[in-house]
Amino acid sequence: MPRTLHLALHPYGVGGPGQHGLWKDPRVAKNASIDIDYYIRQAQAAEHALFDALFIVDSQFINATYPAHYLNRLEPLTLLSAVATHTRHIGLVGTASSTYNSPFNLARRFASLDLISGGRAGWNVVTSFDTGTARNFGLDEHLDYATRYGRALEFVEVARGLWDSYEDDAFPADVARGVFLDPDKLHALDHVGEHFSVAGPLNVSRSPQGQPVIFQAGVSEEGRDLAARVAEGIYAPGGTLEQAQEYYADIKRRTAAYGRNPDHIKIFLHGGPVVAATDEAARRREREIFEEDNDFDRNLALLGRSFGAYDFSVHDLDAPFPDVAHLAEKGGRTGAAKLIERARAEKLTLRQVAESVNQFRRSPFVGDPRTVADTIEQWYDAGTLDGINLAFRTEEELNLFVDGVVPLLQKRGLFRTEYTADTLRGNLGLPVPANRHARERALAAG
Amino acid sequence: MPRTLHLALHPYGVGGPGQHGLWKDPRVAKNASIDIDYYIRQAQAAEHALFDALFIVDSQFINATYPAHYLNRLEPLTLLSAVATHTRHIGLVGTASSTYNSPFNLARRFASLDLISGGRAGWNVVTSFDTGTARNFGLDEHLDYATRYGRALEFVEVARGLWDSYEDDAFPADVARGVFLDPDKLHALDHVGEHFSVAGPLNVSRSPQGQPVIFQAGVSEEGRDLAARVAEGIYAPGGTLEQAQEYYADIKRRTAAYGRNPDHIKIFLHGGPVVAATDEAARRREREIFEEDNDFDRNLALLGRSFGAYDFSVHDLDAPFPDVAHLAEKGGRTGAAKLIERARAEKLTLRQVAESVNQFRRSPFVGDPRTVADTIEQWYDAGTLDGINLAFRTEEELNLFVDGVVPLLQKRGLFRTEYTADTLRGNLGLPVPANRHARERALAAG
Description:
The structure is a homodimer. By secondary structure, the first copy, chain A, is of the alpha/beta class. Chain A folds into 2 domains: 6-279 and 361-442, Luciferase-like domain (TIM Barrel), CATH 3.20.20; 295-355, no CATH class. Chain A has 17 helices and 12 strands. Chain A has an 8-stranded parallel barrel with strand order 1-2-3-4-7-8-9-12, surrounded by 5 helices. A two-stranded antiparallel sheet of chain A has the order 5-6. In chain A, helix 3 (76-84) packs parallel to helix 4 (103-116), helix 4 crosses helix 6 (145-163) and helix 6 (145-163) runs parallel beside helix 7 (221-230). Chain A starts with 5 loop residues before the first strand and ends with a helix. Chains A, B: Pfam families: Bac_luciferase (PF00296). Chains A, B: This is LLM class flavin-dependent oxidoreductase. Chains A, B: GO terms for molecular function: monooxygenase activity; oxidoreductase activity, acting on paired donors, with incorporation or reduction of molecular oxygen. Chains A, B: Residues 31-384 form the Luciferase-like domain.
């Protein structure tokens, strides 16, 4: 079986979690996160390097303690639409919440991006996790886990139904017969479910890739289940090689259990690689990045975020970790419950817990270009990933990876040497979903 | 006082109401309405001609009887974002419904477009009028008039509040002091109103024009009131010169009554001009367009649309107009009540009413370039318009206007000979709204 590693680029802008100090780097423009030219340059560099996709993450709630990139950034689909006309091959994956959107609007926006880009749109489905976001949408408390995931599943099903409103040959545009639309090939949805009622049809036709690609980032039990049911790409949590193997095998097994081909869900590991001229320089750079970002007050605020933006500074830092079990549900992250459990088991103080939540994520891919290529190959062969979602602190580091690591991966037959498709599905090796109505018609015709 | 006519371009794509046959024209690409390159070309041609704005209308409900352009088109903001990076001066006005969006999401998307375009975004606020759209958003019946307009007003107020989340100098990005954001210049909104609760702040900063420009198309009493309160641009209904004068004076008077400067609301008349080499050729062309579009079955379906997509074909065509007063509220258009009134007063049959609803709108601007320029000047001087929203059936007709009519308007000092601003506000002569928090701070400081 051919080895086909997939690469995506996740632009950091002026710095998200784990890179709070990035904006101070003289090589980083202070307005990167709101500068469309920065994103166009990033996308073009990634396309030049034959990457599969540009991946735009998102969040909707901020306060003054948030990382610089979160404070002031462009909405993902507005951003990607502008990038679309300046690129030709690279996929455009945008994050949008299934909790705070309506299926008709969002399906329409992704369908529009898919047409504008000629079949390169992807949707990273998130359910949003904090009370702060809920309060921007008229809710006092965040929806609970089960409701959010049930809603996400139904949302994706409705969106996919809407994306099939038109069969591929719905528009003969035949002047001689005076027929623009063949009305038999336009289908209402008439969906009535637990969370949504949507009549349809959608007023947008399908793109060359049939439907946008669904991405997800399932970590919890509910998240993994949702991913296995509907995702075609996953933004995986990472961790140690063993943890990544467990996650990879679990997702592929769950996907197969739903009757799906496990090759049709591509698992991307987060990798903020640190590449330098020598292994030692890379390790030194990694330590620098960690230290730069390690700020006690910020870590305390970050800790609060997992508990629904709770203010831990009202507690004694050196007393045992306070009883905040009732807040864990609000944060809605599995992480909150785990933190409480660990604090109790290890008898940690609030200070000790806060010190442990620095969001710097150690990348497995640290070293000179050869070391990084070796490690990627090792992780790929160990069954931990189908792709890597790469984040670089500066354009210089991106270029170091592209010029140093990519050619080695190509030489080993692990990465493409040219684009073989113009759609995101094509490059990811995902099938084009047949229009459901055309399929039914074909079945009925025998 | 200098005369400053404003011009906007409203692309027809493959043909909306009143141009159902447009897609058959060999000069119109069959995929124009979903081809981003078509829109980029239109925007660039309009910018070359120094137009103020590109105006993108919208709707969200379709069935197979709808005009070709409605059936399959791009979502306005996704479209405009792609156009933004291929233009530098022209304003980008997109239509979005205040009934079927949430303020946080929509404010964020327009703010993003405003940053991407360097201060050229405008929002045409519509409340959406049909039951069909409601059924795409989980509602069985459309919200009534008063609720929709109350919601629209509050929606715009919330959006403007969110757009002021950051003061203009909120981001010193001062490396020496380690200060990216000045937290005193970030403001939550904490809005709690009849229709919305939105905490804020928005995670996007202000653009060079401060806030996107608000457009509206107020026709009814509620619509005119909303326009006078919040709109900075109006898409006016047109009609005879006397009707347009009445409307213009009424809107300016209402705006002044709210304590606003009536010059800060720009009234755009719809004008699908018909320009040809001679007056006679233009009138002939106008008749052709009308005849081409006059189809009885379609007119009957259009009639139904004003009554909540009611199917009139179940009635005897030659009997008196049926009693559908109970449906007029559903359609939610003042037009429905007027149609019933006229049918009763003039004792019309269903057939006669249906024949009267052809959506072709006679433009006042028909003739050779000189006649069209004369008529525009006459209407401008008569106090009917500040600008015209121009729609052309083909790129050829657009060029005829640009090359024939625009130079005459310029010669008469009615239209600009170069752009004097890079923002939509700048070109429209609208003030940049000061950030409300900065204003309060200045007032407090005396």
